[in-house]
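Encode chain A's predicted structure.
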Amino acid sequence: MAQVSAGVDPARSAVFAPFSDLGRAELVERRLQDAITSGVLHDGERLPSESQLGRRLGVAVVTAREALEALRDAGLIQTRRGRDGGSFVTFDRDTARRFTDERIRALSRVELRDASLHYSAIAGMAAELAADRAGDEDVRGLRELSDQEDLSSESGARRAVARFQLEVAALSQSPRLVREELRLQAEIGTLIWLGLRDEENRIRSRTARLAELDAIGDADTEAARAIAVRRIAGSVEWLLDEKARLEVAAEAVQQPEPSLR
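Encoded structure for chain A:
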């Protein structure tokens, strides 16, 4: 089966995937921030050193250093000196929620819909090619992985979706699609799959993935593509609704209290 290496967590792989061009500190900061606030990187986890981070992300050491400094100033990591020192994630649920909400409000609806179209195109084509090219053994392997999914938490559901997306891309037998899927997971996956914080959405997502898997097993290219596109579109629609809710809540807070005179 042309699948992701056993034992590899696709969501974590996306965090440390190299940037396609020279990354700015802000981009590195945002990627790591998303990984921390979404739970992909866990509280207390030690991050790679500045030099290691620079090599893995394909950026200069000074860029990695600036990003880590910004995360430290934001209270998302702590740095300890000594032999067992390094930069460690300090996950706080309230802080993580605040950062995520700010990120959602900062993106325009046009940007979110554009991201949806791009991701849908990649995911849809990967599913279509997988349905055309995957063999019975490939499908059985993907079903076995699906049976092992842990949907009891948001982080578990994110890992399940990340792995499914990458496995389908791998079954397309297109290295370019695999690389683009990995890049999109790193850049916008944490936002697009934000709805997985709700148990109902986790169940809905699994149902859709199983339907897509059935279509791939039946070599139904059209259905596989359509289901993949709908899954991404549905996630973005939830995100747009969440953005609207956050904006209304922010406006309510900013409204001056009525005069008692």
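The mean pLDDT is 88.
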